[in-house]
Structure formats: structure tokens, C-alpha cells
Amino acid sequence: MIRNISRYIHGTVKIKVSGSMPEKFINLCVMKNIYLWGLAKRNEGLFVCMSLSDFFSIRPIVRNSKNQIKVVKYYGLPFIIKKMKKRKMMVIGLILFLCVLNTLVSYIWFIDIIGTKAIPAQQIRDIIAENGLRPGMLKSDIPVKNIENQVAVTLPEVAWVGIRFTGIHAVVEIVEKTISKPQDKEPADIVAAKDGVITEIIALSGQSVAKKGDTVKKGDLLIKGVSYEGGVGDSTTINPIQQRIRAKGIIKARVWYESYGESELLTTIHERTGRQDIGVVLRIGQQEFQLKKVAVKPGDLVEVDTFKKKLFWWRNNDIIVESTISTFYELNERNVEIGIEEAKEQSKSRAFTSLQSLIPETAHVLSRNIEVLQMPEKNLVRIKVNVETVEDIGQFMNITIKNEISMPSQYN
What we know:
By secondary structure, the protein is an alpha+beta fold. Among the domains are: 1-82, Alpha-Beta Plaits; 106-176, membrane protein fhac (Ubiquitin-like (UB roll)); 266-312 and 319-337, no CATH class. The protein is 23% helix and 45% strand. The strands form 7 sheets. Strands 13-11-17-23-22 form a 5-stranded antiparallel sheet. The chain has a 4-stranded antiparallel sheet with strand order 2-3-1-4. A hairpin with a 6-residue loop joins strand 22 (364-373) and strand 23. Helix 2 (22-31) crosses helix 4 (59-65). The longest helix is centred in the first third of the chain and has 18 residues, at 88-105. The chain starts with a helix and ends in a 14-residue tail after the last strand.
């Protein structure tokens, strides 16, 4: 290992010795204490390696051995230095590039806000900008701890805030507090959230209006949010006073859902041909400059992917430089035919997908019914899906009370 490093530092030359007696050249080198290695004999001659300093002293040996030599390879630090001397401007440019790159990396150019849910990201940006974290700031001049404290003090809903630097990015990580919503205590009835047939109803607070087996529609009253002073059904209470309360209860009902899904047996798809073109638009402030335009003819099938990148011009946030790069992909139109069974599966999948947003996760599915509909179009397969569930259909309906006092004649 040390020998290889030494050879690289001092430089190595690989030569080809050709002539009537190449072995004589080797013997003379040994006699002159010239170190050789990598000796290899081939049809075209004898190949051997030596140090760069020894290479300059072998001219008398070559003349005495009556052979010819040819340099076939050379490597090492002296040769690299020689190349660099010939290309001074490239070396200077490389050094300047590294210096500029090191300077740019010392600044923050982009700020990323992560972890926000209820808090607007722009609100975080405004707070950290007021306290010294803006694009174009030197990393060493940014008071990280002070900014973290200011964000936590200004926004009580923030549980933790951390700022870290990743290259030219400043990442502001926010952890919001989990604040439980205050329980609504306003007087309210419980009404049906959807149509169904009641299978179970238990009034924990208030008076049941519906009963098991009733068919209800969306908005129908199920549990009335009232209570009576003196107790319900108390014969000793002549004039019970009705009070409005927040009804509570368990209402489960059978609910039916219906959805449709369809698929074509012969469809037209568009595929990228591999040919593409790029358009570039540069916006500085309010001015736009078309750097590269892509001409799209009417009737051309293309797919466009647009990428926008904003850069803040030095430290002045009022001047924004934005580049818009649009990639235009050429498309090819192709007809694809699928079988009946595959079309049925696609239609069924689409029907169930549309039902997923309607059926709550807590619902218990009782049955599923899938029906293939006869369509006049021969190219179309349509599926109807019916799903029956048992679920809680109660929802609160708040009531505005204005000194409401009633004397019901009867109630259940």
C-alpha cells in the first residue's frame, strides 16, 4: 500500500521495449540499480514499469542495448500537476466555483414548514421572518433558540417547535397541541341523519318519539330534548313544567345504499411515444419572458407536466424570480378491448368505491347484492350494487330557547 502511494506521488511510466535483445536492456537496468516492476513479455515486445526519475536516466542504456522504447502509459501526481499548469484558467475557475458554492451554502435560501395542521403555514413564516429567519440570511446570524421561543410564546396552540438546517434549507418543524373540543351543552333534539328502519332506540336523556320498527326519513325527530319537572308519567304532578335539554341516546337502524358502476368493452387510451419538448417561462416580478416556446398544433395529442420554482432575489422579498418549466409529451391513441368478465369486475369496483364515502366505518354490513343491468349499448357494462347496513343514524339538532315553557297534554 505504501509502495503504491509512493509510486503515485513520484510518478510511474510504463514502456514497451522492442528490439533484438530486450533482455539486455533489463540486465543493464539492474546493473544501474534502476528498480523495475510489472515485467510482461508479449509478441510485440517487453513491457515494464519504472519511476519517472529513472525514466530520464535510461537513454545510455537504450543506446547500449540496441533496443527501442515507447511510452505506452504514464500516471501519477507529477503528470496531474503538469496538466493543471497548462490549464490555469480551469483550475482558477474550479477554485472560484468551490469558494462561491461554499459561500452560498452558508446562507439559507429556502424555508420549509412541516407539521402544521390547523395553524396556517404563512402565519409561522411571518413570525419567524420578524425574528430573523428569512431567505438570504447567513446561518450563523440566525438566532435559532430565540425564534423557537417566540413562535411558542406567540402561538399558544404550538406544543413544540424545532428549527434545523439542511443544506440551503431551513426546516421549521411544528407540533400542535391536541385541544379537545368543548362539549356542546346547548339544548338539542336527535333527528335521523338518513333514511332507515329503526332496530334499536334507547333514550338516555329526553323523550323517545320513534320506536323500534318505525320507518324514518332524514330529518325526522327521534328523541326530543325535553324533561319534565316531577317525572314523566307522575300522576301526582298536575302541571309538569317542560324544560329543554340536550337529548342523548342510542339509535340504530337498517340503512340501504345503492350505487352504479359501468365500464366500456372498447376504450381508447393515450400512451406517451417517448418524444417530448420543453418550454421555459421566466417571471421577474410582474414581467414574463418566454425563454423557450413549444409550438402545439391544433389536434396534436400532448400531455403537459408543469413545474414551478420560486427563488427569492437576494434579501429583497418583494422581487420574486419564478421559472415555469413545462414538459410536453407526445401521445399516441390506441384502442383497447377487454372481456365481459373484466368489464364486470371494473364496474363492480367502481360501484363499491363510490359507496365507501357514504358508508361509515362503524356500520355493520348485513348484505350485499350485485346485479348486472341490461343496457341498450352493446359496448357498455353496468353494475348495480345494493348494500344493507345497521348503523347509528342519530344526529343533534340544536334548538334556540327563548323562555320556552310548555304544558303538554300527553307524551310518551
